[in-house]
Amino acid sequence: MKLVRLGLRARFILFVLAGVGLVSGTMALAAFWETRNMSREAALDKVRCNVQLQAEKLSRSLNRVAQKPLDMAVALEVVPPQTEEDAFRLIEGFLKTPPMVYGMAVAYPPYTFRLGLRFFAPYVHWEGGGLRRVNLDSPSYNYPLQDWYLVTALTDKPVWSEPYYDEGGANAVMTTISVPVRKGKILLAVATADVVLENLGREVSLLAAEAGGWAFVVSRAGTFLAAPEEEWVMRETVFSLAEALKRPDLRKLGRAMVAGESGLESIKDWRDGSDAWLAYCPVGGAGWSFGAVVSENRIKAPAVALAKQQGFHAILGLAAMIGVVLLLVITLTKPLKRLAAGVRRVAAGDLSTRVEGVPPGDELGQLAADFNRMVDDLNHYVDELTHTTAAKERIESELDLARQIQESILPNTYPAYPGRKEFDVFGRTHPARQVGGDFYDYFLVDDDHLGLVVGDVSGKGVPSALFMTVARTLVKNAAVHYLDPARVLDETNRQIVPENDMCMFVTLFYGVYQISTGRLTYSTAGHPAPLLRRAGGQVAPLPQTGGMALGVYPEPDLGTGMVEIGLGDLLMIYTDGLDEAIDPDTVMFGLDRTLEWLAQIQDAPGPELLESLMARHKEFTRTAEQFDDLTLLFLRRRA
Amino acid sequence: MGTRRLYLLKFASSGRWRVAALACLCLVLLAFPAEAARKVRLRLLWVHQAQFAGYYLAQNKGLYAAKGLEVEIIPGGPGIIPLDDLTSGEVDFAVGWLAAGMEARSKGQPIFHLAQVTQQSGMILVAFADSGIRTVADLHGKRVGLWDNYLALAPQALFQNAGIRVRSIHQSLTMSAFLNRAVDAASAMTYNEYHRLYQFGVNWDELVVIDLAKQGLNFPEDALFCREDAWKDRPEVCRAFVEASLEGLRLAFDDPSLALDSVMRRINEANLASNRSHQSWMLDRLRDLVIPADKSRSMGCLDPRDYERVEGELLRNGLTYSPLPREDWVREAWRREK
After folding, report:
1. Which residues of A touch B277 (CB under 8 A)?
2. Which of B142, B271, B279, B283 should we substitute to test contact with A (largest number of A Cβ atoms within 10 Å)?
3. pTM, whole model, 2 decimals?
4. If A530 and its partner were Cys, which of A434, A447, A562, A573 is the partner (CB 3.0–4.6 Å)?
5. Is A247 on the interface with B (CB under 8 A)?
6. Which H or E element spans position A330?
7. What ipTM describes this predicted complex?
């Protein structure tokens, strides 16, 4: 996988934003969590208080209703009505005073109101704006057996009935408060007040809407008296719903509610299954319970709003942050980009490049100034290099010319004397540089005498070449006047020494070969002794004649040697560039290898011999650089 | 209490209505051609509830109509004595308890037993566990809520067998007296009030149950009755009615959801304080009471041993005065004729 290396800007922005985002995000989260919990607690507290308040309000209004039959009981005890009419009037009086109830009744135990009258239960209720009187004395109704009478009579305390539907009367769901009327231990009557539950339902649903949820009221037995679903009222209890919905938790809550406890529980709203909170509180007096269900979302709402606001601010802040970072990065990277562009241009060869617009004073300014100075230096250097190169080229071409001249002044035709079959002569020089200090020469002194010269000027290059030219000319000149080789070299030395300010010197071999006899007279002024290969294959260097190299001392003490060269003998004159050459391991070629080679050669023309030796030589030195001029001269006597 | 006296009063007052009802019936028979649906009225034992789901489905699903009957179902309730309404001619058929039928018959009411719908007793007495009541004997001198008339026959037999006296308190449609601890024990049906208490937040373990069936008083309850003359004049109508009713009951057990729909519709129309989960419980319990434990027996049959047991208990406790031969008045209308 290839990693994409992001640009400096992108990386910078990324890192800064990640860092800032992480820190501020963590802080914001912590702060949000804290405030969320606080706002949640506050919201739950509000729900709890609200439910408590509503339960108390409801309790107060119920107690006011309950007070009516209680007051009526007092009146019945103190001033018992004597006639049926009195009883009805008494009830009407109470019914007309607030708070409003649907109807009120007084039920007497059988045969207690008046002699001979079994049932008497005057009941007055509102109907169409007026009051309607009913006597509940029907034998089939048999009120002493009705709950509202019987339970109150048996328990001797006020009882709120479970909700019931008042068929034919209010045609509405009602509940009745029944209170016993007693004189001492004797039950005088049961007084009741009927409350239509519709109003309660309306009130409760209004409250619930305010609280952002739904509310309900259940009776002492858990029956719904007011509920968001109208069909729950009277028909369902908390427990029947729990059973139908298979919610044991609801049953447990219901038992807490009917037991008169208050609480706040996290539940699943059994109407829509969402997360919600149920707060419940007893309604004092009636033994009822008021409950409110508020959805978790509603509880969370302030925290969510806060989160949204904080999120919005965070995004704004982050955007501003991005702006600032971008600005910073741009001011930092713009000079860098310019520098990079400058470097690219220079690399492409544009040395007129200058980096402009980087304000001086900081590290980047310094870098730009350094860069510009570097380009200036580079320009300067390149100029110099151009000049030097031009000069070098000129010198080289001149040297090349000099080499050609040097080569041309040495005899280089073969065969050298096509008319003379008695001998074969061939020479060649390999300068270490363009021009060298080695030289060779051969010339006919007269018809029977051949002069042979091989010289090696100290040093290399142009000075040696010039000196060599002088030495060669002097030798040739002297050879014309004298036959004795030592005399020729003495003369040459005499010419060189006085004008040799440079203290250069030259080793020289000069021999005079008598063609007719094969006698060679020679002198070796500091030069290696030539090698002679007899026709039989014996190889030996010529004896040294003694004497110093020319150009140093006025009297070099030169001697003359003489040797007879037989038919087929081969004379090889060489310079120390041959035996002193080294291979890459600095082992010298040496004289032994030359002698070996010389011993095994066949009769061959001069150039071929030379090529053979040079090949052997090259094979030895291989890659080692040639550091000295090398010159070879062959002479073979023929019939 | 004055249960029996009240009953006799009713009986005495119903005599002249019997004549009128017969006249009406004759008029009806004359007025309508034979092919037209025969209109009959059924008095239920109690208010609308799942106990009567079979009759509702027989009506709704056209089972009655298929047999040429147009049945008007009239709910009962506290203070209503279906067998008296039957005798008076107000209705043609009535749902009543076997023991009640026996008592009425022994008192001379001209009624015939057509089918025994429930095979066992569903009646129990309940008390709060914290009241200290554990056995029947514990009820001595206690206030016990009892329903009107024949619905109290079995408990009264129970008290007599146990040799105790209780303070009998009239029990209404609701369990309010019991819940308010106005009584120490109350009557309850396993399929109704017992579960109502649970739906009022009373846990099962907070109740002590005295099961009458386990006290040797396993009185089969719901039975279908008609008047003697109706059976004699039009036995095929009685048979058709019983067959369709039992068929409706089978349908209700097969499709409880359908049955509960029909039950709840009537409950809502009547503004009764009940709910579907309660009716569902009732239908489940009713199934246990209706389907005979002995698989070889059909729905609607009356086990002679049950008959003898009820007859014996009533006699022994002086609730009836003379033996009541089964063949005198039990007609197996549920049995398909060849």
Report:
1. 240-241, 243-244
2. B271
3. 0.66
4. A573
5. no
6. helix A296-347
7. 0.84
